[in-house]
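Quick review question:
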């Protein structure tokens, strides 16, 4: 199958503007044959919120809010699966940094993930994720989802891989320089594909590094974005490679695990 990242420059607190730009880029990915398209974290609102009131003003319910409905409609029209980050408004005023996955099946809504490892000032506005790490079976592949800073914790990718993910979709707003170098190793140690969709631009002193990355189970960088441009990259992936955890005739990265020795 073909997969894609969308690297974009969201306009702060302007969801409608961001929907329009995201749609343009998703259509490019679909025209190039992509069946799974990953967008950045908080693609619809921007990231560097200055107050809780700003988040509340743009957060939406999942799946009934405008962002998820927009993605559902686009998935059905284009026949693609989309993973994208958005601010979720939940009951009793709780806010989550979430990602949704939509597809061309049924209503278009498949599921959501809530970011478990919050970064820096996110802790002022969002609740830590409470749904665990989730893997979604989209028929042609099993897709695990994590968000941005989750990558810093090896347990995130390992948990998704152990739950059966072939591909890890990784919506991001990266400001530290490490993930483009680290994600191929996450892919290698778990024998999965990883798709990191980052953003570009600046917001109130934060500069986002771009360099969206697709990595293979053999630690190959299959695609990497620029540091400052909006762009789409589509690559073909061989899912049989992700489903084969053997390194040689005597080593299997999952069967060789010794979890009885990992306890503290």
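Suggested answer, residue by residue:
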């Amino acid at each position: 199958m073909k997969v894609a990242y969308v690297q974009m420059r969201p306009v702060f607190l302007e969801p409608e503007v961001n929907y329009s730009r995201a749609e343009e880029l998703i259509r490019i990915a679909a025209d190039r044959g992509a069946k799974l398209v990953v967008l950045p974290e908080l693609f619809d609102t921007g990231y560097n919120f200055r107050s809780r009131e700003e988040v509340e003003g743009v957060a939406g319910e999942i799946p009934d809010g405008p962002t998820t409905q927009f993605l559902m409609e686009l998935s059905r029209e284009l026949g693609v699966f989309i993973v994208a980050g958005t601010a979720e408004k939940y009951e009793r005023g709780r806010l989550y940094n979430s990602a949704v996955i939509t597809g061309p099946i049924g209503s278009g809504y498949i599921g959501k993930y809530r970011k478990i490892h919050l970064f820096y000032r996110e802790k002022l506005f969002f609740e830590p994720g409470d749904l665990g790490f989730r893997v979604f079976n989209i028929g042609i592949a099993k897709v695990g989802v994590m968000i941005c800073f989750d990558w810093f914790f090896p347990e995130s990718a390992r948990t998704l891989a152990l739950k059966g993910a072939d591909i890890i979709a990784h919506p991001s707003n990266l400001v530290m320089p490490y993930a483009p170098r680290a994600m191929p190793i996450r892919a290698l140690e778990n024998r999965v594909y990883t798709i990191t969709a980052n953003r570009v631009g600046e917001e109130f002193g934060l500069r986002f590094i771009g360099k969206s990355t697709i990595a293979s189970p053999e630690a190959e960088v299959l695609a990497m974005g620029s540091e400052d441009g909006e762009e789409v990259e589509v690559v073909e992936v061989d899912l049989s490679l992700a489903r084969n955890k053997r390194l040689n005739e005597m080593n299997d990265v999952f069967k060789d695990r010794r979890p009885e020795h990992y306890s503290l």
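Why it works: Helices lie at 15-31, 52-58, 66-78, 154-162, 179-190, 239-243. The mean pLDDT is 98.
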